[in-house]
Specification:
Strand order of the largest sheet: 1-2-6-3-7-10-8-9
Distance between the termini: 39 Å
Low-confidence stretches: 1-26
Number of helices: 8
Mean pLDDT: 92
Structural class: alpha/beta
Shape: globular
Number of strands: 10
Order of helices and strands: HHHEEEEEHEHEEHEHEH
Strand content: 15-25%
Radius of gyration: 21 Å
Length: 331
């Protein structure tokens, strides 16, 4: 009798194991299918517009930045991705008074652009994907288009939102809600993300992670010609699960070299403090920053679309998508 029960137990266990494995593989295949929909053509289409002369370098509070904000807002409307409640038609006003800082120029009123996708099982827990859409405008008759800095991150965020919306419409919506935060004023002091963190539209303790994207379209002065890498900068101990999710996503799909050179509070380049993730980290929210490094065109009028390495940008965007997928769906 015991032997027979043991055999039955083994049979049931094996069935559960096989079903569980099939279910896991199915989930992986679903996420990979969406990641595979990120194309060079889509990246190029949006980046060419955001970094065009028409947007005049997207300086905070200036007409070019307003045009970029409208373009981003129209994208979300077109794809039926709703505004985050509490915004005014996707905009969170960032008043000029909130952007007064030592060494920062006087800036006009500006706006963060914020959309979101509601989670299916944990709608009151949030993953924030952030990228700044401003740049430094014009000087001496030259336009500083900011193709890499940060039209690249802005473009990636738009495509991530589109994919998560497609997944939701297909019955594969994320467990947690995802906020798509396009920050203004980053170049002059991380103003937009600081304002969002100081005037949150959702409780900060319900934001479970921030994934920040800033400059993912080029090959830096260290790697020179080999773009098969990405730098990660994060929250160290409290963000261990984010590192693990990125490593898992990379192993499954993109197989980039993950470089942790800048993942230190004491690195002389101070990357941890120089982009919008910092304003989440200072509130003890786990962060993970995706970055491809500095190049000779950084903050110059030569940071133009023709210099973007779209194939590498595609792989990096796929990695960010899959990392976000794992983070939004983990328990």
């Amino acid at each position: 009798m015991k032997k027979k029960l043991f055999i039955i137990y083994l049979s049931v266990y094996a069935s559960i194991n096989v079903f569980g494995q099939k279910q896991q593989n199915s989930t992986i295949n679903i996420s990979h299918t969406y990641a595979d929909e990120i194309t060079v053509n889509d990246l190029r289409k949006h980046l060419e517009i955001l970094a065009s002369d028409e947007f005049e370098g997207r300086k905070t509070g200036e007409p070019g930045q307003k045009k970029a904000a409208e373009y981003i807002r129209n994208f979300y409307k077109q794809h039926q991705i709703p505004a985050l409640p509490g915004t005014e038609d996707y905009y969170q006003l960032v008043p000029s008074e909130a952007m007064k800082r030592m060494f920062s120029p006087k800036l006009n009123d500006s706006e963060n652009v914020i959309a979101y996708i509601k989670g299916e099982e944990l709608p009151n827990e949030y993953i924030v994907i952030s990228a700044h859409y401003d740049h430094i405008g014009m000087a001496n008759g030259e336009i500083f288009n900011g193709a890499d800095d940060d039209a690249s991150g802005t473009t990636a965020t738009l495509l991530l939102a589109k994919l998560f919306q497609q997944a939701k419409q297909n019955g594969h919506g994320p467990k947690r809600s995802i906020i798509f935060l396009h920050c203004t004023g980053e170049e002059y002091g991380l103003h937009g993300s600081r304002y969002f963190a100081n005037n949150p539209l959702v409780p900060l303790n319900q934001i479970k992670a921030n994934i920040n994207i800033d400059m993912i379209g080029r090959i830096d002065n260290i790697y020179k010609t080999d773009g098969n890498y990405i730098y990660l900068v994060g929250s160290l101990d409290e963000g261990k699960h984010l590192y693990a999710n990125a490593e898992k996503a990379n192993n499954e799909l993109t197989q980039l070299k993950i470089d942790y050179t800048y993942d230190s509070r004491t690195h002389p380049d101070m990357i941890f403090y120089r982009s919008d993730h910092y304003n989440f980290a200072r509130h003890n929210i786990p962060v993970l920053f995706f970055y491809s490094g500095e190049h000779d065109d950084y903050h110059k009028s030569t940071d133009t679309v023709d210099k973007i390495e779209f194939e590498w940008m595609k792989k990096r965007t796929q990695l960010i998508f899959l990392t976000t997928w794992f983070t939004a769906n983990e328990f």
